[in-house]
Amino acid sequence: MTATSATASPKGTRRRRKNDPESVRADILAVATREFSEKGLSGARIDEIAEKTRASKRMIYYYFSDKETLYLHTLEAAYQKVRLQEAELDLDHLAPLEALCRLVRFTFCHHAKNPDFIRLVMIENIHHGRFLAQSELIQSLNAGVIDVLGNVYSRGVATGCFREGLDPRELHWLISALSFFNVSNQHTFSRIFDWQQTAPENQQKLEDHVTDMVLRYVRVDREAP
Amino acid sequence: MTATSATASPKGTRRRRKNDPESVRADILAVATREFSEKGLSGARIDEIAEKTRASKRMIYYYFSDKETLYLHTLEAAYQKVRLQEAELDLDHLAPLEALCRLVRFTFCHHAKNPDFIRLVMIENIHHGRFLAQSELIQSLNAGVIDVLGNVYSRGVATGCFREGLDPRELHWLISALSFFNVSNQHTFSRIFDWQQTAPENQQKLEDHVTDMVLRYVRVDREAP
DNA sequence: TGAACAATGTACGAAATGGTACGTTCAGTC
DNA sequence: GACTGAACGTACCATTTCGTACATTGTTCA
């Protein structure tokens, strides 16, 4: 257990400040993530972030220079977090078909479980990806994702259960699209079509659809009997 | 030809104001659409919209009360415009398979051609669809979309070329997801995977993938020879 | 022609907002 | 213990930004 709240102090004693740079920085980043992902770059307010932090506004500028830099760090931290989670997925010991099935289901659920991240990516796209463009960190983080899928795919082609000629990057695009949209457009879609998209039973349906759709697309046409 | 710019006047003559409420309103809405879709609700500035308009800031408030109401009207107008374009699609005279193919390709291209609309929908989702929820207009506009797809689908089931048991609404969800993502995430995807997604040849590839994927999903499994 | 109302221009106000100046306290080093 | 740089608090500033008050011009209709 590390040093905690500086406000907790022996009663009556004049409260002494306790320096804890690491946790202050982390706290700011956590609050900023919530605020930016909720309200966007222009919608989020530095003053509000400051209020919700244990630290003060001064500290935000001390560690992050300005609003846009704070946003960039938020984005980077978010990518780092999700890619770390994804790295836990181990597909090498599975047969290609099962591996792909597992990968798709994981991607779908993983997106659904990280709406903050999805929203940050949406917001970054609204800004034409100009912050992401500044970050070599994010670029490098994501290179591996395609390789994982590429391995599964080529194993499947070798085994004869997957069609030839598909590009892993395009395949990843298809899987991402279906998983991303599930989170990004849940509000408009639910309201327009009067459909509780986020209800567990509907989420299950969609996950099955998406998985099934991808597998049907990649699998070889049914072999003649 | 209707009344035009009030700035054009016989030389030397003291410029007289010409009232043209319809076009002023339309002009404001057009500029607001660009600004909101580019920068979001909180990012767009009323003053900037006013500057880019032939009218003045006063007029914005005169016709649209406040910023949020202007945004709502922008959103409604955008939905109206795209649904009108979609209504031109006539599928009844086509065989189910061709009709579905045509519908998917149309949806994909239509999204690609209307990035402003897509961005507004993204922005609306960032706001949890709370403005869309206020608009009965938008709700009613979209009801028909499912019916069109539903008709094609049931015709296909009747003909025996489509599988049974699929829900038109869920089918629409899948088609939307693939078409929407193509526009909404083009920036991050292009940058992260170093892939010119918007290049014509890649757009063609994606359109083919998406169409093929949907058709494979809906078609009956290959009939035994 | 002249009310009466709709449409428009100009200038301004109050609050919000990003950012900073300046001073104080903490923690490690000689 | 004195010194130094990092870590932090408070108060403040300049600008932006939404919105409005007030005056003026256009248009329609009796």
TrEMBL record, chains A, B:
One of the Pfam families matching this protein, by short name: TetR_C_29
Stretch list, region Disordered: 1-23
SUPFAM superfamilies tied to this protein: Homeodomain-like, Tetracyclin repressor-like, C-terminal domain
Regions of compositional bias (Polar residues) in chain numbering: 1-10
Residue spans binding DNA: 45-64
Domain HTH tetR-type: residue ranges: 22-82
Keywords: DNA-binding
InterPro entries documented for this protein: Homeodomain-like_sf, HTH-type_TetR-like_transc_reg, HTH_TetR, NicS_C, Tet_transcr_reg_TetR-rel_C_sf
This protein's name: TetR/AcrR family transcriptional regulator
Species of origin: Vreelandella gomseomensis
